[in-house]
Amino acid sequence: MSKIIVLMGAPGAGKGTQARLLQEHLNIPQISTGDILRARVEWQDELADEIRAVQASGKLASDELVVRVVEERTAREDCASGYVLDGFPRTMAQASMLEKLAAEQGHEIVAIVVDVPFELLEKRATGRRSCPICGEIYNIYSKVPKDDEKCDLHPHAKLIQRADDTAEKIKIRLETYNEQTKPLIDYYHSSGRLHRIDGTKKQEEIYTEIDGLIRSNGFVGGNQGSIQHA
After folding, report:
1. What is the DSSP letter of 136?
2. How many angstroms from the chain centroid is the CA of residue 201?
3. Do the domain assignments include residue 230?
4. H or E stretch at 75
5. Alpha-carbon gap, residue 228 to 79, rounded angstroms
6. Distances (CA, A) of 70 to 63, 77, 81
7. 148 within a domain of the structure (yes/no)
8. Which of 53, 45, 90 is nearest to 70 (CA)?
9. Containing domain of residue 14, as a range?
10. Helix or strand (DSSP H, E) at 227
11. Residue 163, in any domain of the structure
């Protein structure tokens, strides 16, 4: 049966990478609420006007508005065989609305959490550096540049740290994620649809485990091809 894959993970856990791999190898779309809201606001209709008004106010989009955008996007033909949700649902209200949407579309929900210890997530984020010229990403703990604090491709460029990659701000982001996501994790766990994946492994190993999990749950997607090049 076709699936809605709810992919969860803290900032830095690598769920975005896994969502893209699932899209590529299973031929189902990766749907990020942030991306579709940004794209939808470019339209000239009532819904786009509502999104622009929310953005202008600086407030978060309501559950009802987000669900309307998700419902519209997932009604497209490319979602008929299932899809990956990245960043949705974020609240219990959204999770409840997704249950109704899944039933209407004839999909089953599989929830997957990419688990990484918060200590490692903090280290990944605070150690991150990037080249101001090419954008190449390094990490002072795990992907060290050849010359300290200099880009390998642009040796005259001093690597920079994002303003929100400080230990204090990372801690706040992780605590916020934990508070928001715990009810969702408990919800999917209680219904027997939650699966945990060890996010400390290599990207390829994580993907292979997720792919096997989805297929063992009876996934029927748009492409059942090889995953050797994940």
Report:
1. -
2. 17
3. no
4. none
5. 24
6. 10, 14, 16
7. no
8. 90
9. 3-117+176-216
10. none
11. no
Tokens of 51: 């999104």
Give the C-alpha separation, 202 to 116, whole Å: 12
Q: Output the six-digit token pair for 28.
A: 């189902």
Please identify which residue in the block is written with the tokens 């606001």: 41
Query: What positions carry a catalytic annotation?
Result: 15, 90, 128, 162, 173
The per-residue pLDDT string of the chain (230 residues; one tens digit each, 9 = 90 and over) reads 789 999 999 888 888 889 999 999 999 999 988 889 989 999 999 999 999 998 888 887 899 999 999 999 999 999 999 999 998 999 999 999 999 999 999 999 999 999 999 899 988 889 989 999 998 989 898 889 998 889 999 999 999 998 878 888 888 888 888 888 899 999 999 999 999 999 999 989 999 999 999 888 776 565 444 333 33
User: Per the domain annotation, does 100 fall within a domain?
Assistant: yes
Query: CATH number of the domain that 78 lies in?
Result: 3.40.50.300
